[in-house]
Design a protein that fits this description.
The structure holds 2 protein chains of 2 kinds. By secondary structure, chain A is mainly α. Chain A is built from 13 helices and 2 strands, in the order H-E-E-H-H-H-H-H-H-H-H-H-H-H-H. Chain B folds into 2 domains: 51 residues, no CATH class; 203 residues, Orthogonal Bundle (MetI-like fold), CATH 1.10.3720.10. Chain B starts with 6 loop residues before the first helix and ends in a 6-residue tail after the last helix. In chain B, helix 5 packs across helix 7 and helix 8 runs antiparallel to helix 9. The chains are: A mainly alpha, B mainly alpha.
Chain lengths: 290, 276
């Protein structure tokens, strides 16, 4: 079908997208790379000088950076575990023939559609406030002292909020994967007398393994960039307790006006994301062959 | 599980499923209820669940004090405008890749996907500086361009997977019946492509509506959409929970409803076709 003519026409149709995406990806990346080798402060914009890798060494030896890196990994790792394990359980539950299945599914998926700044502020104020939040009331009713969430457990608080946003996503994807498990296999398993545990381990888990991998990779990409939830709840604090890499770069660039340092941080974030993207792209590419 | 289940077990599973779903949904429900309380009722201890004076006063106040409609307008213009322009660019590209693939089409698709993996924070500094110099900070046009570009790979990918499902044989049948190329496009291809395009648009609008990294960093007031508007409630003065709830309810209700319609597309779109 690919005659000379259609090839040329095809190129003309694809070209705008390719050019736009190329510019969008390459220009900022090259500029960030370039800035990252400069001593460049917006407070002193006339005094720019080349400093080589100094920003990187400064960044990598800065205890704030190591804290931010650690926080990023804790946040991503915890939310992944909670949302994937929780997601599998919720998906299994929603796959059962229960009364009102459709309504249940709508309720479960809803948090994913909530604006991140709304989720964060609702959790912080209506639920987790130590004086008049709902959790404080529950704690007092049970005879405990209310937890002062954002002061004493700042990272845990952020993890809970972000997990609430991503659990529905994992549940929905895994439920979709579960539903493609064919009836015959289910019946064969029950005829063979498989108990629920071995049924899950030998039939269900292998069937949804790929969906789980996809969920993990996609969530990781998004979770490496968590920003709004931190911005409106803790502003990275107390101290640096909830500063992750995106927030550190934001602070460095827009609050401290240190363009060079922020750019070095940005490049480090790009490298981190690329390690994950490498695997994700391969999995999706394999699917494209089919 | 089609294993034979006793009625008792089924009731048990149903109850557990409802409790779990209710707990997951509860923060949204609680926001909705709180939005009808007076500020005093909103912080009352013990909490008032249903029996309080229901009032619409917060909704009036949110509009009056902070001009909610302006932010809603920005959200609508940005999420629809950016993605309509995005579609105009993406449809031809996806179309030609699906119906006249070349040798490198797959590589091209994978490359487009990889641009989506680039973390926003890697581009923040240069984009911020470029926008500052071009006076695009806090302008609908500037943020709109960014929102369009971050969705473009997703648009192309989703459209591509939908177009791929249109059977090419049907074109030949139409051609045998003597249809011209124009007729082919208007009467045969378009009707089959429209549902895919609509689904793609739906998901793209939802994602743009909720985007909060670029909108927080590139807007302050003029072009600020709802995510940035809600963020202004993080530094409150006085009692504000009921008003926060009213503003939040207004901000998420339209997209929640759209979202419920688009669950299937969500799976396909966000996994780039890896899970269907």
């Amino acid at each position: 079908m690919a005659t000379q003519q259609t090839t040329t026409a095809g190129r003309a149709l694809v070209a705008p997208s390719v050019i736009l995406l190329f510019v969008w990806m390459i220009v900022p990346l090259v500029m960030t790379l370039y800035f990252s080798t400069l001593r460049y402060s917006l407070l002193d914009p006339d005094n720019v000088s080349f400093v080589g890798l100094q920003n990187y060494t400064a960044f990598l030896t800065d205890p704030d950076f190591l804290t931010a890196l650690y926080n990023t990994l804790v946040l991503v790792g915890s939310v992944l575990v909670i949302s994937v394990v929780g997601g599998i359980l919720v998906a299994l539950l929603m796959d059962q023939p229960v009364f009102g299945q459709n309504i249940l599914r709508l309720m479960v998926i809803a948090p994913f559609f909530v604006i991140p700044t709304v989720s964060a502020l609702v959790w912080k104020n209506l639920l987790m406030n130590p004086d008049s939040g709902l959790f404080a009331w529950i704690a007092r009713s049970l005879g405990f002292d209310p937890i002062v969430w954002f002061t004493n457990w700042p990272m845990l608080s952020v993890i809970i909020i972000v997990s609430w946003e991503w659990l529905p996503f994992a549940s929905l994807i895994l439920l979709t994967a579960l539903q493609s498990l064919d009836e015959e296999q289910k019946e064969a398993a029950s005829l063979d007398g498989a108990g629920p545990i071995s049924y899950f381990g030998y039939i269900v888990l292998p069937h949804i393994a790929r969906a789980i991998t996809v969920v993990i990779l996609i969530e990781t990409i998004f979770l490496l960039s968590v920003f709004a939830e931190i911005y409106v709840t803790t502003s990275g604090g107390p101290g640096n307790a909830t500063t992750n890499i995106p927030f550190l770069v934001y602070k460095q660039a827009l609050l401290n006006f240190d363009i060079g340092g922020a750019s070095a941080g940005g490049i480090i974030a790009v490298i981190l994301a690329n390690i994950v993207a490498f695997f994700l792209v391969r999995i999706i590419g394999r699917n494209l062959e089919g | 599980m089609a294993l034979k289940q006793s009625t008792g077990k089924r009731i048990g599973v149903t109850v557990v499923a409802w409790v779990v779903a209710f707990l997951i949904f509860f923060p949204i429900l609680w926001t909705f209820i709180t939005s009808f309380k007076s500020e005093l009722d909103a912080i009352a201890m013990p909490p008032k669940f249903l029996f309080f004076n229901w009032t619409l006063e917060n909704y009036y106040e949110v509009q009056e004090r902070s001009n909610y409609l302006k932010f809603a307008y920005n959200s609508i213009v940005l999420s629809i405008g950016a993605n309509v322009v995005g579609l105009l660019i993406a449809v031809p590209a996806a179309w030609s890749m699906a119906f006249a693939p070349g040798k490198r089409t797959k590589d091209l698709l994978m490359w487009m996907l990889s641009t989506k993996m680039m973390p926003a924070v890697g581009a923040l500094v240069p984009i911020y500086l470029i926008f500052r110099n071009l006076h695009l900070l806090d302008s609908l046009f500037g943020v709109g361009v960014v929102l369009m570009l971050i969705n473009l790979p997703l648009l192309i990918w989703m459209l591509y997977t939908y177009f791929k499902e249109i059977p090419v044989d049907i074109l030949e049948a139409a051609r045998m019946d003597g249809a011209s190329l124009l007729n082919e496009i208007v009467y045969v291809l378009t009707p089959m492509a429209v549902p895919g395009i609509a689904s793609t648009m739906l998901l793209a609008v939802i994602l743009s509506w909720n985007e909060a990294f670029w909108t927080l960093n590139l807007t302050t007031s003029n072009a600020a959409p709802l995510p940035a508007f809600i963020a202004s409630y993080s530094a409150p003065e006085g009692f504000f929970w009921a008003k926060l709830s009213a503003a939040s309810t207004l901000a998420i209700a339209p997209i929640l409803i759209l979202g419920w319609f688009s669950q299937k597309q969500l799976v396909r779109g966000l996994t780039f076709g890896a899970v269907k």
